[in-house]
Structures are given as structure tokens and as C-alpha cells.
Write a sequence for this structure.
């Protein structure tokens, strides 16, 4: 480890130390910020962990520790691996310890993984995938970007850091990866904490989307009960978009179905009311009549674009697939919920579902349309979970299940929990999917305590 020698009193300043190279592990510079040290680590790992001749890719992780601990003490602290939500989301960048990280840093060194293909890890995006000659070759490459490969990376990294079994904390898709970790390499896990991340262990994604469409509809009703004036406003925006061509700052047209994507706000207590503030900026008056404001369009673009997370759109449905094709599951299930159509009398917001038209309307995704279709048709996805191993699990595990979560269904989560030995569940209606952004410190401490009871 390369660690700063700055005293704790330097918490509001900054200091950077140099790099250290050991084999396929580069320990980068350490920055000292407000109460924390942040050290970058880069690891060379096989693209395919099962192939001795596999090409290598880079996986980046950032280590965070509290300045309340001396450098010597930090070196003796156990590691906590954090697995971010997604798929396709990079690790959290922070400049001060707060929320769950503040609680964790009291007794752990936190390793924040940029899961392969994201952040400072070797990217998987339109530019890099263009190096492959065909969509089929691109798809074959992307088969190595699921939870099983992420877990294999983590185990290799754990050994290179010289760590014993570590604590694994998974949020949302990171929780899915944690279940894969308990299936494939339980010897590497001392305890497992999961928030909004109990994936179905079997079954098709259709079942997931049927549950989440119903949850999203309930959440729409709840939102419009809080803000009844927004009911007519949302429909007015939709009818305006049908009649008048409005373009986002990047130049592409904003369609009704893309506008519906701002329903991502509905997935949390800390964000849901921000949707009202977004909508109140919608219209401005011009000599030619009402138009959508530049302020509104700029905000919407940041929500609906997948430019920074192309892997999310490409891989989202595959995270539920084991031995069958997704076949654009959300698009098919949508036919059972016509109330979510973009021509419905009263427009509803949608959730995190991915549709093929994303790859037509989002310029960042257009070059990936062909490979997206290949992935949707792929039927030979390997297993992600070992139900026999999970049924005999000996690793203490605790999971927060959010009763009204619109992304990870409560009923499906409880079914998974019942199939994992030594997994304790804390079910609550106090939080939504973004619970650790709401009161991460309390949630983390509660789950950690459950694994020590």
C-alpha cells in the first residue's frame, strides 16, 4: 500500500504520494482530503478467468480510509469490498466520508470497485467495441462482463491485496453480484451485506418486469396524489412533444417515451420529490407559443441519456438470464400493461426497464443496436447462482428489503432470502431503493450488527 504520511490534522488539505508497481497490481497516488485518504489501485486480470491464454484487461479500484486511523493502523484494518449498483455503474467517487462510508471507515478499509468495463477499468463502450469485426464478436466479448466475471476479478484482487476473507457490501445489482460471490467463492467472504439487491435465483426476466411494472404504477399513483397539479402537466408535456419537435441540447429529438424515463426519480425517497421540481421548469413562453425550456431539456438529457452507462442498456436484461434468452423481455411484458404506453390517455412514468428503441433514439447507443439484438437473442447464458451452495451457506449475511422497492420486488426478494442459509432479512417501508443515500449510516450499522448477532 502507498499511504500518505499526513497527520489527521491535515484533513482539510491535500497531499499526493507516488506510484508503486508490483506485478499485475499498480498502487497509485494517495490523495488526502477532508478526513479521508483515497488511493487508486489498478489490476491486470484475465478477460476470461477460465482461459489460461485469455487477454488481460484492467480493473480499477479506489481504497478509502479514515484519517482517524494512522497509516500503521490502516494497514491492519480488514477490507470491505463495495459492489456498486448497475450493471454498468462505476464505483462511488467521494471527497469526504459520510453516510454508510463514514460508518464503514471506522473499522474497515473500503475498496470501491470500478466493475470491469466501467470507470477507470478497461472500458466497454461503442468506441472500444468497434474494434471487433462483427456484432457477434462484440457480444462474445460482453459475455465476460456479468456477475460471475466481476466476482472472479474480486477474488483475484483480494489475493493480490493479501487480504483474508473480506466483508462484501452490495447495493442493488451489487447485491446480485454478492449472491454470485456466495455461490462461486464463499471462502473469500467473511460476511455479506445486501441492500435492495436480492435477485431471483431462477426464472425469466418476464416475472421480474411484471412485478416491477405493477410497483411502478403504484408509485405513479402515490406521486400524483402528492402533486395532483402534475397529473395534467405531465399529459400536457406528452401532447406537446407529439405536436412540436423539441430537441435535447445534444441535438436528438425528445419523444414521449423517452420523457417517460424521468420516472427514475420514483425509485427513491431522496429523489422522488425532485421530480416535481424538474416538471415545474418544463414550459417557457415564446413568441411562437409554449415551448419546453432550455433548463428543463438540459436536466432531462442528463436523466435519459445512457452515454455514460452503455453497459447498463446492453447488459441489463442479461443479469436475469441463465440458460435462456431475454428476447427483449421488458418490451414484451409492456404489452400486458397498456397504461404505460406513450399514447395512453394519462401518461405514466416508467422505471428502469430497457427497450430496443433506446438504441434508436439515444445517439450514444445507436452504434450498439446490432450487438444489443445479438445479446437479447442469446440463449446459452451460463449460471449465475448455485442454489445448492446457497442452501448450505455458512457465511453470515444480512439484507435490507424495501417493501415498496420499484426495482427489486419485495416478494421475489423474500423468496430468494428463504433459499439462502444464514441470510437474515430486515424488511422496512421506511426506505426505497436508494436507502443508503437516505440514511446509509444507520442501514449499514444495522446490517453489520445482524451479521454479528
Amino acid at each position: 500500500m502507498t499511504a500518505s504520511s499526513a497527520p489527521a490534522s491535515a484533513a482539510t488539505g491535500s497531499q499526493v504520494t507516488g506510484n508503486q508497481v508490483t506485478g499485475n497490481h499498480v498502487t497509485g497516488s494517495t490523495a488526502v482530503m477532508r478526513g479521508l485518504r483515497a488511493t487508486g489501485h489498478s489490476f491486470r486480470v484475465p478477460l476470461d478467468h477460465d482461459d489460461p491464454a485469455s487477454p488481460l484487461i484492467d480493473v480499477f479500484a479506489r481504497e478509502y480510509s479514515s484519517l482517524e486511523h494512522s497509516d500503521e493502523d490502516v494497514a491492519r484494518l480488514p477490507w470491505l469490498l463495495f459492489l456498486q449498483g448497475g450493471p454498468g455503474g462505476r464505483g462511488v467517487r467521494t471527497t469526504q466520508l459520510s453516510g454508510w462510508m463514514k460508518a464503514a471507515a471506522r473499522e474497515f478499509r473500503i475498496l470501491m470497485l470500478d466493475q470491469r468495463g466501467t470507470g477507470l477499468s478497461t472500458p466497454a463502450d461503442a468506441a472500444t467495441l468497434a474494434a471487433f469485426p462483427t456484432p457477434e464478436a462484440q457480444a462474445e466479448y460482453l459475455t465476460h462482463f456479468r456477475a460471475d466475471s466481476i466476482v472472479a476479478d474480486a477474488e483475484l484482487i483480494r489475493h493480490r491485496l493479501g487480504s483474508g476473507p473480506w466483508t462484501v457490501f452490495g447495493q442493488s445489482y451489487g447485491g446480485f453480484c454478492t449472491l454470485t460471490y456466495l455461490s462461486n467463492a464463499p471462502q473469500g467472504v467473511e460476511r455479506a451485506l445486501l441492500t435492495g439487491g436480492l435477485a431471483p435465483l431462477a426464472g425469466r426476466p418476464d416475472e421480474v418486469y411484471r412485478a416491477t411494472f405493477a410497483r411502478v404504477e403504484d408509485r405513479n399513483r402515490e406521486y400524483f396524489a402528492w402533486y395532483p397539479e402534475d397529473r395534467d402537466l405531465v399529459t400536457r408535456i406528452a401532447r406537446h412533444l407529439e405536436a412540436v419537435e423539441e430537441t435535447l441540447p445534444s441535438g436528438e429529438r425528445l419523444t414521449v417515451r423517452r420523457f417517460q424515463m424521468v420516472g427514475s426519480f420514483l425509485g427513491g425517497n431522496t429523489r422522488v420529490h425532485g421530480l416535481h421540481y424538474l416538471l415545474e421548469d418544463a414550459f417557457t413562453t415564446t413568441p411562437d407559443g409554449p415551448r419546453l425550456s432550455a433548463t428543463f431539456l438540459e436536466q432531462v438529457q442528463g436523466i435519459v441519456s445512457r452515454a455514460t452507462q452503455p453497459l447498463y442498456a446492453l447488459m441489463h436484461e442479461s443479469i436475469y438470464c441463465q440458460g435462456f434468452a431475454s428476447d427483449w423481455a421488458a418490451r414484451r411484458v409492456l404489452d400486458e400493461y397498456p397504461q404505460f404506453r406513450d399514447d395512453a390517455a394519462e401518461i405514466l412514468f416508467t422505471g428502469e426497464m430497457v427497450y430496443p428503441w433506446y438504441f434508436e433514439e439515444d445517439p450514444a447507443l445507436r452504434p450498439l443496436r446490432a450487438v444489443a439484438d445479438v445479446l437479447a437473442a442469446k440463449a446459452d447464458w451460463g449460471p449465475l447462482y448455485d442454489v445448492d451452495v446457497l442452501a448450505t451457506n455458512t457465511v453470515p449475511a444480512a439484507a435490507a428489503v424495501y417493501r415498496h422497492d420499484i426495482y427489486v420486488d419485495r416478494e421475489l426478494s423474500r423468496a430468494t432470502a428463504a433459499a439462502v442459509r444464514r441470510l437474515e432479512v430486515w424488511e422496512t417501508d421506511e426506505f426505497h431503493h436508494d436507502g443508503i443515500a437516505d440514511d446509509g449510516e444507520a442501514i449499514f450499522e444495522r446490517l453489520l450488527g445482524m451479521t454479528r448477532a
Observations:
- The longest strand covers residues 36-46.
- The mean pLDDT is 94.
- The chain has two domains: 8-203+383-452, 205-377.
